Amino acid sequence: MISPVVRRAGLAVLVLGLAAAPFLVDEYAIQTMSRILVFSLLAMSVNLLTGITGLPTLGQSAYFGVGAYTAAIVSTTVTDIGIVALLVAGALTALVALPTGWVAVRARGVAFLMITLAIGEIAFSAAVRWKAVTRGTDGYSGIPAVVPLPGMPSLQLDGLVYYWVLAVFLVLFVLMRLLVASPFGLALRGIRDNEARMRAIGYPTTGYALAGYCVAGALAGMAGSLYVSVQRFVSPGDAGFEIAALALLAVIIGGVGSMWGACVGAAVVILTRDYLGGYVAGRASLLLGILFVAAVYLLPRGIAGVRARWPVRARAGAQA
Amino acid sequence: MTAVLELRGLSRTFGTLKAVSDVSLQVRAGARHAVIGPNGAGKSTLFGLVAGSLPASEGSVVFEGRDVTRLPEHRRVQAGIAKTFQHSSLFLSATLLENVLLALQQRDGRSRRVLRRATAHRDLVDRAHLHLADVGLADRREAVAGALSHGERRQLEVAVALATEPRLLLLDEPAAGMSAAETAQLTELVRSLPASVTVMLIEHDLDVVFGIADTVTVLHLGAHLLTGTPEEVRASEEVQTAYLGAADTSELFPGAMS
Amino acid sequence: MGVLQWFDDNLVSMVDGVAFGLLLFTLAVGLSLVFGMMDVLNLAHGTLYLVGAYAAYSLSDGSLLGLAVALGVGLLVGAAGGVVLAGMTQPLAGRGHLDQAVLTLGVSFIVADVLASAYGAEVLPADPPSALRGSVSVLGHTYPVYRLVFIAVAAALALVVWALFERSSLGALVRATVADRDMVRALGVDTRVVLFAVFAFGAGLAALGGVFGAPILGPGPGVDETVLVLSLVVVVVGGLGSVSGALLGALLIGQVQTLGVAVVPEYAPFLLFGTMLVVLAVRPAGLVSLTKRQTA
């Protein structure tokens, strides 16, 4: 049994390690870590729908893209203050998720997956073709360095940007854990388990699914905003199908329903793409494809599922 | 007599099959009202129409003087109608406590809260414990519902329905598959419910029916055959004819087979 | 003036829309049947089109014989791919659609990578056979011959598929397997053969679409994704598991993607979603909904 003391100690080591990382590893590694954190937020957003609410999605790249473009536009034309871009991106994405989600949550299961996939693809084609807003395939480059809060200097170094991303990640991670354990989160899990019964005890389930959809959208949008802080560049590819597919893969690898599992899965996916992919130049998508297939056959319940099968605390994985 | 529930010409068709056909019925406030009939009589369909999980093809459902025919299921729950499922329908990955909490937090209008853990709402947790204790599951509240035995699931099924704090409780074969001891406990629980809760039940176990019910309605082939006291139903020749040939009637009519 | 003039102005787009719609049908019907019958969501469906289109590019030498060879090879490779996919997804039966989706996505990533390294990252031009090049004048508009031939062939193909599944005893067996697998098994039919056959058939059809469609939507990285999304939209709009639904949905989406884009180019990026939204708002289960999965 993993005692609470060991768990807390492990958590402390993890947070300390994350905090000390810029002093320990090179610049490319730090950029990769920032990308992992950003991608973890996106994976958590997918997990909120797929793992918690039981609505499998391949469309969160759309909201990631909306957030990224919003942040790019806010940063280049209005203000370089990061928190403003973050909040505007989150709010606007939630707003976009409302009508699109309204269509999606009328469906369940595979139909939901298909509709969200279409939403993602339409967002991608809008990013390419709606040039007045998105600048087409060129996208936005040379986005000014982020100033996290008013009065702070602009963060030119990757190590400092990493701290901004880490701070936002930690806040959002804690908020998501809270949300999943809250009455609202319990209701979303109820929809996953047994939607008919939820209606029979008085829940307007479609409304709850839509609310969950909007929260997930806002989370993906904020991840997109952070992505712009890290890359200082955004193009249609960042809202593409591959992003959505990889986010779903991260959730599958990590274990459906587990928030920390989604983050571990995100790390595996990004490391495979950006690190291993570097060793076999240009064949990253081959590696990812193999990872997809291997995850399904070898890790049927994900990393969190493997841990949960240890005799103790069998429910920890399902609840986290 | 004040009717808490009134069905007026209620019908439901599936394709060409008329599962419930022009049923009119009044359920008195505080009644323990059983609905019986051979298989295929339309009992479960009738409950579905009252609870709102099935839309009515014709007719109306009036609950506490208010026409609820067009209300969606979740609104009828808010109005005070709760239903258990013939086949246990629970939240299998959640604990027993969470199963009951889901109903309680919705009844209390707290299901949209996000800032505290669901299990940190102490008052709701305490009430959930009471509901679990009522069905004899108090000591299993941290177990996952998926780990329960069949009989225990039936008990939890009733606890979840009661946690919506209904004024009309529809029990669809609550004792199916329960052990004799569990059945006795369930009978006792239903008997102990306050008169402010009207109970309708479908049950094949006629010991349970006659142990609980003060009024019995017999359905046959979707149509209303008879409503009366248990004694009137036992004595009815019409009912005997409906049951004869359909199933073993010896239990209902001890004299008929000899 | 008015309606007639508008009609005349957009005739080319409309005919294009019919061609595109029929192409979409050959793609979507396989996806729809495989899901309806095998309960398998095949996200590698676009990859099958890509394989067919590359086959057309590699084997077409400008002669009709080259096209025929490409058709044969495409059909064979596609059907074999279908059997492989069916075999890969079989062990996942009962684990839900999410694992199938991720597995088939993985396959599509792998095949796309292999194809990209073999054929490069550019969209390749695939020319129709020389006998079918050039254009003819139709009602005062010049129109490519190949598209007209394509419309004729694809319409015939659609008719065959429709007749096969909705009107023949073979189709009846397939539909019975969809409705109640156990009952068909009890009648002494090996349902696994039926399931594999339908998967091979649907996959072969998608590859066939790739061979025929290459001059219209040429092979290149990302095309598999485009095809997949369009097929999914067609299936969602038309109704899952129905041949007539796939045809109706395909023709509608074909018009939206050509006529719609020509008439209101400023809304082009949103037309596809807008159409899906309107259809689902009016008919949540698609244009042709099968009620067989609903139980009372």
Gist of the model:
The complex is a heterotrimer of chains A (320), B (258) and C (296). Chain A is mainly α. Chain A has helices at residues 4-24, 27-53, 60-78, 82-104, 109-129, 131-134, 158-181, 183-193, 195-200, 205-231, 241-254, 259-279, 284-298, 302-309, 316-319.
List its traits:
heterotrimer, A: 320 residues, mainly alpha, 77% helix, C: 296 residues, two-stranded antiparallel ribbon, 12 helices, 2 strands, 3% strand
Task: Describe this protein's structure.
The complex is a heterotrimer of chains A (320), B (258) and C (296). Chain A is an all-alpha fold. Helix content of chain A is 77%, strand content 0%. Chain A has helices spanning 4-24, 27-53, 60-78, 82-104, 109-129, 131-134, 158-181, 183-193, 195-200, 205-231, 241-254, 259-279, 284-298, 302-309, 316-319. The longest helix of chain A has 27 residues, at 27-53. Chain B has nine helices and ten strands. Chain B is an alpha/beta fold. Chain B is globular and about 55 Å long. Helices cover 34% and strands 24% of the residues of chain B. Chain C is mostly helical. In chain C, α3 (45-59) runs antiparallel to α4 (64-89), α3 crosses α9 (191-213) and α10 packs across α11 (243-263). The chains are: A mainly alpha (320), B alpha/beta (258), C mainly alpha (296). The A-C interface holds A 50, 56, 58, 100, 103, 106-107, 109-111, 113-115, 117-119, 121-122, 125-126, 128-130, 241, 245, 248-249, 252, 256, 282-283, 285-286, 288-293, 295-297, 300 and C 35, 41, 91-92, 95, 97-99, 101-103, 105-114, 116-117, 225-226, 228-229, 232-233, 235-236, 240, 268-270, 272-273, 276-277, 280-281, 284.
The pLDDT mean of chain A sits at 88
Number of helices, counting only DSSP H or I runs of 4 residues or more of chain A: 15
| Radius of gyration of chain A from CA coordinates | 19 Å
Order of helices and strands of chain A: HHHHHHHHHHHHHHH
Strand-residue fraction of chain A? under 5%
Helix vs. strand class of chain A: mainly alpha
Q: Which spans of chain B of ≥5 residues are poorly predicted at pLDDT below 50?
A: none
Globally, the shape of chain A reads globular
Sheet with most strands of chain B: 6 strands, mixed
